[in-house]
Amino acid sequence: MDPLTDLDEATLQVIIKAQLQDLEEMARVNAPKGKGRAGQHDPRDDLSVAINAYRDELAARSQFLADQAMCRSMASAVDADAEQIQALVSEEQRSTRDRRMAFRMGGQPVPEDNRHDHTSAAAGAVDDEVVERLRHLNISGSPSQSPVSFGFLQSHQTGADDDVMNSPESSSWAAQRRPAHRTTTAAPKPIKKMPATRECIACTDRHPINNLTRSPDCGHEYCRDCIQSLFTSALTDESLFPPRCCGQPIPLDSCRTHLTATLAGQFQAKKRELDTPNRTYCHRPTCSTWVPPELIWNQVGNCLQCGRRTCVLCKGAEHVSRDCPDDPATQQVLQLAQEQGWQRCRACQKFVELNTGCNHITCRCGAQFCYVCGLPWKTCGCAQWEERMLFNRANVVVDRNAGGQRLGARQRAEMVEQARALLVENHECDHTSWRSRGGTHRCEECNHTLPNYIYECRQCQLLACRRCRFNRL
């Protein structure tokens, strides 16, 4: 067991101060005297760099401990005084309402009073959920028993500094230290109990509220593992970018504390790439690195990874001393697309094939366009659907609802017509209402097969897995 685990913050600060003094003495003793010979390496230069780096780290850790002590003090004050503050705020609001009612009953104009707005804001600042989150953080107890207080010393041994800083305290630590800040002379103050855990919308498991992050628009909450999984998947699956819930983006800042520093950095770098229209990648198959717009001159991109030069028009190798010719491979793909009736997305240049449904296409990159002409959706006069595609989709829905039963010709025709009418009515579906279907089904968005159940849109009858329902559609 690490003996540093029993040290409080004051002792750690003394240790840091002593180490800083030792470093100053070491730097003084090993300081170079005079000028060295030209071209000769002095080992003391390396030692000086190491001393300066370690000095900066110790200073940063000392500041961290001081900031942590201040945060702990503030959290302890909120935890101890939240009920009294709430009672005072409620009393003031009640007095304000009584005063206004007296003016109304007396037929007098009600004077403006801005104090109510301030007290409402104060009440929101110390609401029950904030107090509960602070309690789950376990930062108001004895500093000597807090594993976070010595996390920086452990990080040098384990290399898991991010994990120490990002992980909540375990229940065993909380159980050990809760009695530490209770006194025997005064009874504990009653605080309204809040649910200790809430459900993650992705995995449906219950987690401590401090381990959950909330989507700003829809209010759905994700646990630490699920939000990290969503952001990680968005790095490689463009249909999940940007990370979103119920169709609304999840800002990085709203969940940054639940992501590792590495993942947050990777996402910021990837965001710039995926936000660039008509992207160019290195033509070398073993490289395929994205070429930023700043590295493109005269329709030629320069790869920072391997140094190859790529034509941004045909996406092939640079054409030396001549204009970009008609690339034979590209022309073959275009010819095949024309024969098969495929449409090309004008945003990402990828091809899309429509088998069933209306002509409204939403590409993996997020662009929406008409399948007939390729123009942005609702900017052309093309028909919104083709009858053949519509009946194909209606037959898929009828076969699914029949559950393998053999239908008579007349009954089937009636059901297909009903399904077609519903598709026409709901072809501009926003997928706001869902129901669950039991059994084995295949997601129509990601093609994954789910063995137990799947979600079905009540309007357009689209089948979608949980990930697609909340994060892809």
From TrEMBL:
> What keywords is this UniProt entry annotated with?
Metal-binding, Repeat, Transferase, Ubl conjugation pathway, Zinc, Zinc-finger
Q: What's an example Gene Ontology biological process for this entry?
A: protein ubiquitination
Question: Keyword Repeat: yes or no?
Answer: yes
Q: Which GO terms describe its molecular function?
A: ubiquitin protein ligase activity; zinc ion binding
Using the UniProt record, name the top-level EC class of this enzyme in a single word.
transferase
Enumerate the residue ranges of region (Disordered).
158-185
Boundaries of each RING-type domain copy?
A: 196-386
Q: E.C. number, please?
A: 2.3.2.31
* Reaction catalyzed: [E2 ubiquitin-conjugating enzyme]-S-ubiquitinyl-L-cysteine + [acceptor protein]-L-lysine = [E2 ubiquitin-conjugating enzyme]-L-cysteine + [acceptor protein]-N(6)-ubiquitinyl-L-lysine
- The protein in question is named RBR-type E3 ubiquitin transferase
Source species, please? Dichotomopilus funicola
Cite the source lineage: Eukaryota, Fungi, Dikarya, Ascomycota, Pezizomycotina
